[in-house]
Amino acid sequence: MIRETLRYHRPDSLAEATALLAEHAGDIRVLGGGTSLIPCLTRGEIDVGHLLDLRGLGLGTIREVPDGAEIGAMVTYADVLASPVIAERVPLVARVARGITGGRQITQQGTPVGSACFNFPTTDAPGMFAALRARFQVAGPSGTRQVSAADFFVDAYRIGLEPGELVTGVLVPTTKRGGYCKIKHASGSWPIATAAAVFDGAADGRLRVALGAVQAVPLVVTADDPGQLAERVRDAIDAPWADVLAPADYRVRVAPVVARRAVDELLEVLP
Length: 271
Hints:
This protein is an alpha+beta fold. It is built from eleven helices and 14 strands. A hairpin with a 7-residue loop joins strand 12 and strand 13.
């Protein structure tokens, strides 16, 4: 259960927020939508003395930027679904949001950036952001920086942040075509495997597929045509994820199938 001595902080500036994170390093967690963090605190899986709420930092907006879209750390899945910027610039993000595990309760409260930061392997957001070559915007005691998705997802539940840093949002390059597929037991179940497919480059039509829930971090494979996918996926998997939902060998078997279905959807949405 959540400890009685838990201290709640709601800073109104990034400077205050990063100072609190540095001061309580190792004993503080960032609260975004809270749909993953609060249940873990309640079950005693996470035990910290401090929570830092992002709600006072103005991070709940979606903005069009020259090369894509900027999604704030407090933007919910519902915000994504209502956004004309997302619909125009990166419709794959809305495609994923429509099928997010947990239904309306998670859609209204959960945040894609928060899900990426929690980095629970069997969730939708990490693989989606990896496929899109997202760049995470990070603020810390030394200023701001950007972290590529490839460097952001370090291991299960671990992301590439330094002490005192927090994620303020994510930049997603304009990607007007995408496909997505996931396998799960039921509508309320965590995914067993996900695949997000885009074109890897504007001119040559090369495929880029990011697999989620198959390993501890998203696994990206590329191929010149769909017929190469199965072999590329099987060759790339070297540490398959196992949990109560599915054993590792099952994830290895279904990963090529999910990848191909995502690519089929990508190709079907061509004008």
